[in-house]
Write a structure and sequence with these properties.
The chain has about 300 residues and is an alpha/beta fold. The protein contains nine helices and 14 strands. It starts with a strand and ends with a strand. The site of D-malate has 10 residues, from helix 3.
Length: about 300
């Protein structure tokens, strides 16, 4: 199974278009230790020819350009693409708006939870994806499904499952109390297994908390991509960027007693990779103390273009 990180950044990417903080400034200016990052998405393939995207980021056009595996097959018809399916993990802007760039009549299958499909269905702009070509398929939490292209199996089985999280920012209901109207299915994780080999990994780019069911599920995993949004819960406030904690955004921080570095210490996972890393996070500076800390705890920081063969 081949995995390609198309984008490793959180919403906004690095540099973020309107951001003047150190990481963004340095990424913009070509700093050798702060590389640009596009918004989070990965591509997965069992046969190396047909690919499934996990989320479709607003940077998808550039991500396809930068990824030779996603270029039209040179020996194919005049219009073709290796992208055969897209699976969404939530309805966030950084994960769904790339769908709008996949118009032009290409056939692929779109998989999402009932909640996220409801959002897509309610927004008529997504009708740029011709429903006869792009089937919208509802996935059932806890139930494995074989990922299909319009022409047949893609050799992958995916199990979607609910994780603690928050409804997309633009759907928040202020009056709904502390969870802003979040319901099950607003944020999901994916367990991806290659049918032929049994090789597998987890994809969880957004998660508010590792609760016991999630801990039990991921224990013993071969590999996990996990929410690496912030290093500290308050870092966006501290850098004067946004008056919001990570907790308020439905994301976990890396450091501290409630952070992923500590929590994953006693979960047995062979390979742990952070993704969806916010432009405020000091681990994006590859010579920072914080980067050393996460690497010393066995974590990798994903980067755009990272390739993994499982
Ligand atoms: C998030 O990950 O919390 C969202 O992408 C935030 C946003 O929509 O800006
Ligand atoms: Mn996001």
């Amino acid at each position: 199974m081949q995995i390609k990180v198309l984008g490793s950044g959180a919403g906004g990417g690095l540099p973020q278009w309107n951001c003047n903080a150190e990481n963004s400034k340095d990424a913009r200016n070509g700093h050798e230790h702060v590389k640009p990052r596009s918004q989070s998405s990965i591509a997965v393939s069992s046969n190396g020819k047909d690919w499934v995207l996990l989320n479709a980021s607003p940077d998808i056009r550039q991500q396809i350009f930068d990824t030779k595996q996603l270029h039209p097959h040179a020996d194919g018809p005049m219009r073709n693409s290796p992208i055969q399916a897209v699976i969404l993990t939530n309805g966030d802007v950084d994960h769904v708006t790339g769908l709008l760039c996949l118009r032009e009549g290409h056939a692929f299958n779109l998989y999402a939870s009932n909640r996220v499909l409801g959002t897509i269905n309610a927004n008529t702009i997504f009708n740029v994806l011709n429903k006869e070509k792009v089937q919208r398929l509802e996935i059932t939490l806890g139930t494995p499904f074989e990922v299909m292209s319009p022409n047949g199996s893609l050799g992958l089985e995916v199990t979607p499952f609910a994780v603690p999280g928050k409804v997309a920012l633009y759907l928040e209901k202020e009056k709904a109390g502390t969870n802003f109207g979040t319901e099950e299915g607003d944020t999901i994780g994916l367990y991806v297994k290659e049918i032929a080999t049994g090789k597998s990994f987890y994809y969880i780019p957004g998660c508010a908390m590792v609760d016991q069911p999630l801990r039990d599920r991921i224990e013993g995993a071969e590999m996990i991509f996990f929410d690496g949004t912030l290093f500290t819960n308050n870092e966006m406030l501290d850098q004067g960027l946004l008056p919001k904690t990570g907790e308020r955004m439905g994301h976990m921080n890396m450091s501290g007693d409630d952070g992923t570095l500590k929590i994953f210490e006693d979960i047995n996972i062979t390979r742990k990779i952070y993704i969806h890393i916010n432009n405020s996070n000091p681990v994006l500076r590859d010579n920072s103390e914080e980067r050393k800390i996460v690497e010393s705890k066995g974590w990798e920081v994903s980067y755009d273009g990272m390739e993994i063969n499982l």
